[in-house]
């Protein structure tokens, strides 16, 4: 299996190279040259299997001979061993034919753990073989950062720098990132929003001298390994509702588009997915784009679902690559317009290709609060604000096709956003016992301007220590 860049100008890589590289050197994102497919029988055989077994089956064709089967199974087992639920990604029923996929039972209470834990294992195994040392730099709107810290804390051959937007993550999210005591972990509070952090990360990757000097690696969903690991729960949940005999739809609270794009890959692999519904909060650039073909930045407004406060939706580039029949030059052109003008327009053909798979909806703050309250009243489920955005949009879209089961992804635990959840429901969601002392731990963070040179100086200096 070879991996190619969405902008068509970078060398094709193996899985291991793509995973260790992060962003392609032409600024694009790596994707598999071809997507392996499963027959209906292959998918039916997943029924009743453990999450770990399904993970092995789904990911194996993409990783090729990077690891032996035994090695890979061992890495998968280690990755999910600390999850707080034996099913790893349990489904609960919210309403007739509407199901919630709980993706928040991992160590940091968000769906990021599903991918970060396994790529943490795979990267460590690859580093042990190569004897290399890397610098991971991540941009986060709140959840990727803590998941990355959890996966790489305390390792001798990895430094982890996490940039988050100062004052724009929840207190629990901030403390999860700033209270790691290990000296290889560095939390950086950047004066800006998430798009600024992600922009700086991409600038670091595009500064080849810096990139090579610090052996830069990325664990955001620019890394194909992240997307791949997220494909697994689309299979596990669909199969438990009767796939491949029965079609299902998914609604995905969306920001950087990595999670819903994993659903698209599952569909390409043969999973019978009827619709993939993009659910955005008030930062609705993706919804506006699906309606109007215009991807135009308006500026981000902070919301009660801060992890989705994103306007430069990184993985939308991967969706555009498919919508343009793998035409890297066309994608590079659109990305260039976004960078220079803050806007691009998608052609009719490409829009048709996107609309073949994706629907969308946007949710304002008042509706998000109301959805938390009504889900608790009608199903007993306490939602985080991101999941509530998904549930509202999922409910609306299920009405259009009620006989197809709708699976809405619950992307974070309500305890990560206690203020918003309590305001909506009068219920204060407690942290799980293993995190009960989070508010007593000492915080360690460096406030940094939104400035490439300043960020690079800190990274150079700290990693050398
Ligand atoms: C809790 C939560 N929900 C939803 C999202 C959006 O996911 P994606 O960026 O993959 O679209 C994120 C951040 O990525 C998140 O942390
Ligand atoms: N919502 C994310 C933003 C980064 O997304 P990623 O999937 O590209 O890592 C976060 O919580 O950090």
Automatic annotation (TrEMBL):
Pathway in which this enzyme or protein is active: Amino-acid biosynthesis
Q: What is any Pfam family matched here? A: THR4_C
Cofactors named for this entry: pyridoxal 5'-phosphate
Q: State the reactions this protein catalyses.
A: O-phospho-L-homoserine + H2O = L-threonine + phosphate
Q: Which residues carry this modification: N6-(pyridoxal phosphate)lysine?
A: 112
Span of domain Threonine synthase N-terminal: 2-80
What the entry lists under InterPro entries is as follows: Ser/Thr_deHydtase_PyrdxlP-BS, Thr_synth_N, Thr_synth_N_sf, Thr_synthase-like, Threonine_Synthase, TrpB-like_PALP_sf
* Keywords associated with the record: Amino-acid biosynthesis, Lyase, Pyridoxal phosphate
Which EC class is this protein assigned?
lyase
Q: What are the recorded Gene Ontology BP terms?
A: threonine biosynthetic process
**May I ask which residue range the UniProt record assigns to the signal sequence?**
none
* Documented EC number(s): 4.2.3.1
Q: CDD domains given for it?
A: Thr-synth_2
Q: Which family does it belong to?
A: Belongs to the threonine synthase family.
This one is known as: Threonine synthase
